[in-house]
């Protein structure tokens, strides 16, 4: 008899976990709350991925194809785990979907419920939603994914664009002290794409630190050295409207000292990643710990980042903190291995 | 609206003309250039001279001028301006900065990147003081070649601040002329003469005949250094060398002018 394992969340992490388990002959129930698989990259139509600018379809499309082409994976779309109980070393879960509820017993569980984009409207100083030409990196991903890079206010291509880093991250005022890790790299990647397609459009990045860690640094160098992207040190304190339908970024140039108020055609906010409402929900439903940042808490961040505090429940991907797709996929595989071992041991 | 500006003092019992910005309470906090005030101004027949037309220009930087960056990037010496990420390794390595704190290659590069001429203008007196030791270029992690960027800076200053160069760098230009004449005329540098001419030009004639200078001159007369130039004469076959140098200087000038777009 083969094992039954529940995977919650069909983003890169959950997909890879499900695929690996399926290859081991495990019966996988993949529960996804959206009507499609692929997680945030799919939802916001990421087009090209850092670090190598490969088409997102090469990665996300590939994973979805594998997961949907049967094998031992049963995908539950637009569904959720409505009830969850421990049953000895196993788990009884109720999967609720449009077609009704199904109760099943699982040998182990992988939580891969991912992250939510920080909603910049929560930080009023950035005037998101107030001005059409203030957008954020997920909006820009989508605009570029849809080949529709224009100023929302008038449908014309912008001539001068500002990226503002650390929106919703590293800021006590919004309640997030942590660094979201990917937004610097996403921003320089987008600035490169923008300059490639629209060489007439100037790109400025307002930063406090640029954290394109590891090899992502290559993109940062490329943005400056091959695409003349200009970095300006200082966080933006306010966005107001300016003359000629511009949006004005108000800040301090901390290198030269002194205030600036620079008009732009368009401003892109590098909003960070949050645990979202799903993290506390899953935490209370499954009885696993939440950390002080609003993400799910691993049993030991260094030794076993893919284990929850509850034996038999494993974690993968951005549900435990901001990270890139490659890390999410790696953790999906690590969680799969651990969930499988647990299941086999308790057969 | 009839606007009349007078160069001469308001005649006919006009208000007494004060110093520029004198009435501003915290005058010391405001830079001279930021105060706009017409000494004598009449609008529609109403005398608004002096404090009645004072206008303080905001210190807020209100735009980035990228055309300037593009211009520098096109020059040979400034082509790597896009690389600089403002780490400050150049300034930390610089030979000149410890002597003139206001000479800051990192900051100058940033001003050039953002086209902040307003800020650059404040540093015309020191901005050209790079001695070309290349320590900065040897250490710069981005291989910006800041030493040559300082040359780009000199070009920029020459082009955009001609007036200021004439006034603020008058002495330097004059001493440079003496230096060049010496080299081209005699093929040798007479340091003693360069020194005394520079002192004269800067109006330090009194010091020239002070105790220290007198002592030095006496010593040089005694040990014969004062006459060495006369005795040595011009270098061998100087006229052809001179021609080559003049040729070079001429070419350099043409290149510089074309790079600066003068
Ligand atoms: C703007 C932006 C651009 C990025 N670009 C890149 C890039 O170019 N390259 C790169 O490597 N990384 C990139 N990232 C990071 C990347 O998005 C994440 O690493 C990745 O999405 C994390 O995968 P995940 O599966 O853990 O989570 P997610 O992608 O968030 O997927 C989680 C899935 O779980 C589902 N779910 C959530 N809660 C429940 C629940 N209770 N029940 C059922 N299902 C649930 C969600 O609907 C979702 O489908 C970017 C991030 C941002 C913010
Ligand atoms: S990755 Fe960059 S933009 Fe994002 S929070 Fe960290 S420092 Fe800020
Ligand atoms: S020129 Fe080089 S050393 Fe100087 S600040 Fe720029 S990157 Fe650093
Ligand atoms: S070359 Fe010029 S700027 Fe560079 S270290 Fe020497 S004096 Fe300073």
Q: What would your notes on this structure say?
A:
The complex is a heterodimer of chains A (347) and B (262). By secondary structure, chain A is an alpha/beta fold. Chain A folds into two domains: 4-115 and 275-345, FAD/NAD(P)-binding domain (3-Layer(bba) Sandwich); 118-272, FAD/NAD(P)-binding domain, CATH 3.50.50.60. Chain A is 27% helix and 29% strand. In chain A, the strands form six sheets. Chain A has a five-stranded parallel beta sheet with strand order 5-2-1-9-20, covered by helices on one side. A five-stranded parallel beta sheet of chain A has the order 11-18-12-13-14. Chain A has a three-stranded antiparallel beta sheet with strand order 6-7-8, with no helix packed on it. In chain A, α1 packs across α3 (56-68), α1 (12-23) crosses α8 (325-345) and α5 (183-197) packs parallel to α6 (217-225). The radius of gyration of chain A is 22 Å and the shape is elongated. The model of chain A has no long low-confidence stretch (mean pLDDT 96). By secondary structure, chain B is mainly α. Helix content of chain B is 50%, strand content 5%. Chain B contains 13 helices and five strands. Chain B has helices spanning 66-74, 89-93, 105-114, 117-120, 135-139, 146-160, 162-168, 170-186, 191-201, 205-208, 211-222, 225-232, 238-260; strands at residues 3-5, 35-36, 41-43, 46-47, 55-56. Chain B has a three-stranded antiparallel beta sheet, with no helix packed on it. In chain B, strands 2-5 form a two-stranded antiparallel sheet. In chain B, α6 crosses α13 and α8 (170-186) runs antiparallel to α9 (191-201). The longest helix of chain B has 23 residues, at 238-260. Residues 93-96, 105, 130-136, 146-147, 150 of chain B line the site of one iron/sulfur cluster. Flavin-adenine dinucleotide binds next to α1, α2, α4, α7 and α8 of chain A.
